[in-house]
Amino acid sequence: MTSSAGTPRALLSVNGLRKLYPVGRKLLGRFGRTQPAMLHAVDGVSFAIERGETIGLVGESGCGKSTLARLIARLIDPTAGMIWFDGADISTMPARKFARSEWRADIQMVFQEATDSINPRFTAARAIADPLIRLRDLRAAALRVRVEEVARLTGLPAELLVRFPHQLSGGQKARVGIARAIAVEPRLLILDEPTSALDVSVQTVILKLLHELKQRLALSYLFVSHDLNVVRLLCDRVLVMYLGRIIESGPAVQLFAAPAHPYTQALLSALPNPGARRTRIALAGEPRSPIDPDPHICRLYGRCPRATDLCRKVAPLLQQIAAGRLVACHHPVDEMAAAGP
Length: 341
Fold this sequence. Notes:
Layout: E1 12-28, E2 33-49, E3 54-58, H1 65-72, E4 80-85, E5 88-89, H2 95-98, E6 107-110, H3 114-117, H4 124-136, H5 140-153, H6 170-182, E7 188-192, H7 200-217, E8 220-224, H8 228-234, E9 237-242, E10 245-251, H9 252-257, H10 262-269, H11 309-313, E11 319-322, E12 325-327, H12 336-339
Parallel strand pairs: 3-8, 3-9, 6-7, 7-8
Antiparallel strand pairs: 1-2, 1-4, 4-5, 9-10, 10-12, 11-12
Helix pairs in contact: 4-5, 4-6, 5-6, 6-7
């Protein structure tokens, strides 16, 4: 991997990223010929994360959020597209090789289920130490010092380090997962629904911890979540994903105040007390199939109340509608003027 003078200056830059999965075969014509049918989990995604920025990634279940997170974390290989990290193309290196490279420490992930992501045979200390041994080659006293240091940073009492996962509460296991992720001093942390399995009171504490760690360690976050209220409070910018594509993006304050895409408007209308100007919007029908979707039809066609014949013939591309605001829609919702700056 080599850097290029022409690459973006953002910490992470994704361009045309795709992940397709074979799901059987489909018949072509009347002569018995077949070809693989492909599920388009991530289909042409492009965006960037600046240094010190928190990006929220939202969308309903099955839209491709977790697949996108795993692609960026380089846990799985893309079908097509590029991932640039600090000026270097990291998408060409196979995931298994990437796991042993110097880049692995720079991008770490905090998983949704801390219980499932921690080896049940490891103590909390051993779980935190694992990436330090593999990626930093720390041993003995140096290893113990670093484990204790990140345990303090994440609010994990020293007496809990000797316990196994089944002896820890949900919040304590979440702290172990976060401590393990920051132990190797990453620059980008990918958070895949990190608090969804926790009680509300514990969620608040963990989210506060993540905010403090970002400031203290100068981290950048990709925050994947169903909880729109958390995204609104924690994130600088928001990406809205639908059937494998980004259909809207923009600063969190502006996007929540004035959603431009009909899907985003419907998504945000479900929030409690979303505002006097907005009522609950229910999209009719079911999402289109992600298996070999027609590239000429808008992904929301058939559910969108603003759809016209143009939406059936030409799939909209992401277009700028204001500074920092992008939307993939032929007929965006005109709430921006009403919302003000």
